[in-house]
Write a structure and sequence with these properties.
The chain is mostly beta strands and 652 residues long. Helix content is 5%, strand content 58%. The protein has 2 helices and 49 strands. Strands 1-35-40-37-38 form a 5-stranded mixed sheet, with no helix packed on it. It has a 5-stranded mixed sheet with strand order 43-49-48-45-46, with no helix packed on it. β5 and β6 form a beta hairpin. The N and C termini lie far apart (147 Å). 30% of the residues are buried.
């Protein structure tokens, strides 16, 4: 096991365990640290500062030379404000002072363990200057080597209701691997006398009084080639009544899927089936284990396992050969009903490769064509392999072997969707989206999944339409990131992205969205930090600007009228200038040339602007009242003609 872990650590470059997305509400503000496997993960804590002023930070190294817990090779502490600004940066043990403001303070402690030591232990205290009590204190210990869960130790305590003889049983469930050595030490209560030892081959009978509470400490050792095992501990009365029962997992169960089962009918025979869908490939060594009351039933793939439960609840564990990936179905039913009909996807451990997995159920209300779209966002990388299947009643009804669209004719009912996106090499990171629409174009399902070593995902739930500003910023602590990428997605759609840092504004309708961030630390330092914010923006201001006339004679006047909504101030420019009220009327006199009147108004949601241009009307070259001169001229001409004719008649 040690050699295997060493080989994995040597091969890993940027992988850490991918946690499920965190659900967040608005406003969203978080400071995230990312580290390579070669670097110790920082200790991060949020501390509330209620009074502004000078504070004292004391860092103490509890390591002792020549012991396994030696002094640390290096210690560094950062303190970040709510806005993500560095307010303290301490790079050594001792006492440091600094000024802090009221608000939530994020403290990050980085510890570099000496290579020859097994670990280090560092203490931190924070108190206001002159105060006698700490605002915050902690002691953090880090190890140079991984802690192996082999052998494992578990302590269980039980009570008996009546006087009598009880049998303590310890059983190796041999799922998925047997336990090499299993034994339990029974004590008469915590710190009490030793009652005896129990093993799978040798149950222990003990005489107990009502109210006695014995304690059983179980030591389980796995064989060198066994990654995980199960055992159960039972206490049974002389009447075979179960007084106590527990099932314990030992080892790495990251590749084992557990399903809770509710609604069993005690005393009624039930059947369990495990189905290998062969999607995207058949699962090797596919096995299931059902534990329900006194029953521990081994479920073989493709076979029917019958059992009679003694309780209403049970647990089903499903496993396959390490490193394989695929979909399996679990179906449990009795004579009256189907109790559970689920699909599970088994995927490899993170150190082997990374996979984005979607296992969802959707309902089709009416018959018709249903379309499934799988999209590879290829941010920051495209998946090497993508497969998807729609399953109903244990049968694949539609299938995709790459990103794209697939349609099928559906009848009303419940369907299961399984989607897997994989990288063939270590270090891959990406996100895929899925949307399902019915024949009417209505959304039936919209979801996303991510994979990658240093990828962090946050589900953003929007209850009412919101206008947001989403931003990502490299804090450069303790060094700049090699890469910072943010994507906002919903289903199969990319709604926004940031490369290297920055922000964008977007209006989101009610629904569930996913923010995915890929941050790659500097390869030498192995550690970095970024800031993620999603803030609600106020609606932008509105402005109405009008003029009583847009054309006036030379030297004329114009009256401007304006009003605003959600504005706090306005500024005039152009043919007028200076501050203006957010609403008003103003007359400008003596216009000599075409003029533009501009108004800029500012509010919490931004700036709005408008402008009006007023021109000067051209005047006519005719003076004296327009038509007076032409009419006078005609009249004079007529008089002249009459006079001429009169003179002619007299002469004749």
């Amino acid at each position: 096991m040690m050699s295997r872990i060493a080989a994995i650590l040597g091969a890993l470059l940027v992988l850490t365990f991918l946690a499920p997305p965190v659900q967040a509400s608005l406003p969203l503000s978080s400071t995230e640290f990312v580290n390579l496997p070669s670097a110790q993960a920082p200790f991060v804590e949020t501390v509330a500062i209620s009074d502004a002023g000078e504070y004292v930070v004391t860092i103490t190294d509890f390591g002792v030379d020549g012991t396994p817990i030696a002094p640390a090779a290096a210690v560094r502490l950062f303190a970040l404000s709510e806005e993500g600004h560095t307010v303290l940066d301490v790079s050594d043990v001792g006492v440091t002072t600094g000024t802090l403001e009221v608000g939530n303070l994020t403290i990050a402690l980085l510890i570099d363990v000496d290579g020859a030591a097994e670990g280090a232990s560092i203490g931190i205290t924070l108190r206001a200057s002159g105060a006698t009590q700490d605002v915050f204190s902690t002691v953090q210990a880090v190890s140079n080597a991984p802690v192996l869960n082999n052998p494992s130790s578990t302590t269980e305590r039980f009570s008996v209701p009546d006087d009598g003889t009880y049998r303590i049983q310890l059983g190796d469930l041999r799922f998925p691997d047997p336990v090499q050595d299993l034994q339990g030490l029974v004590l008469n209560g915590p710190g009490g006398a030793v009652i005896g030892v129990v093993t799978p081959d040798a149950p222990l009978d003990v005489v107990l009084s009502a109210g006695d509470s014995p304690e059983v400490t179980v030591i389980a050792t796995r064989s060198s080639d066994a990654d995980r095992s199960n055992y159960d501990l039972r206490v049974v009365s002389v009447d075979s009544d179960i007084v106590f029962q527990s099932v314990t997992q030992v080892g790495d169960f990251s590749e084992v899927v557990s399903l809770p089962v509710a609604g069993l009918m005690p005393g009624e025979q039930a059947e369990a089936r495990l189905i290998d869908f062969g999607f995207p490939a058949s699962l090797e060594q596919l096995r299931g284990l059902l534990t329900a009351g006194t029953d521990s039933v081994d479920i073989a793939a493709g076979a029917v396992s019958r059992f009679t439960p003694t309780t209403e609840d049970a647990t089903v564990q499903v496993s396959a050969a390490p490193g394989t990936i695929g979909a399996a179905g679990v179906r449990i039913e009795d004579a009256n009903s189907v109790i559970i009909d689920s699909i599970v996807t088994l995927e490899p451990q993170p150190e082997l490769n990374e996979a984005a997995v979607i296992d969802r159920v959707f309902d089709v209300p009416v018959a018709g064509e249903v379309t499934v779209e799988v999209r590879d966002f290829a941010i920051p990388q495209a998946f090497d392999n993508i497969v998807a299947a729609v399953i109903r009643d244990g049968v694949i009804v539609a299938e995709l072997r790459d990103a794209g669209l697939v349609s099928f004719t559906a009848t009303p009912g419940t369907y299961q969707l399984s989607v897997v996106g994989q990288f063939t090499a270590l270090g891959g990171a990406g996100t895929l989206g899925v949307s399902v629409t019915d024949a009417g174009g209505n959304s039936v399902l919209s979801t996303e999944a991510s994979a990658g070593g240093l990828l962090d995902t946050t589900e953003l739930v929007i209850d009412v339409a919101q206008r947001l500003r989403i931003s990502a910023r490299d804090l450069q602590l303790p060094a700049a990131l090699d890469d910072l990428t943010l994507t906002l997605t919903q289903g199969a759609d990319i709604l926004g992205s940031i490369l290297g840092g920055g922000d964008f504004d977007i209006t989101l309708s009610p629904g569930v969205y996913r923010i995915s961030v890929v941050a790659s630390p500097d390869a030498t330092v192995g550690l970095g930090a970024y800031r993620l914010d999603a803030a609600v923006l106020a609606d932008p201001p509105e402005l109405t600007l009008e003029a009583n006339n847009t054309s006036v004679p030379n030297g004329g006047n114009v009256t401007l009228e304006w009003s605003t909504q959600r504005a706090t101030s306005c500024t005039a420019s152009g043919a007028w200038s200076g501050s203006r009220a957010t609403a008003g009327t103003e007359t400008i006199s003596g216009l000599q040339s075409t003029s533009e009147f501009r108004l800029d108004c500012t509010g919490e949601g931004g700036v709005v602007s408008d402008a009006i241009q007023v021109s000067i009307r051209a005047t006519s070259s005719v003076s004296g009242g327009g038509l007076v001169r032409p009419l006078s001229s005609i009249f004079l001409a007529i008089l002249a003609l009459i006079a001429y004719r009169t003179r002619s008649q007299v002469t004749t």
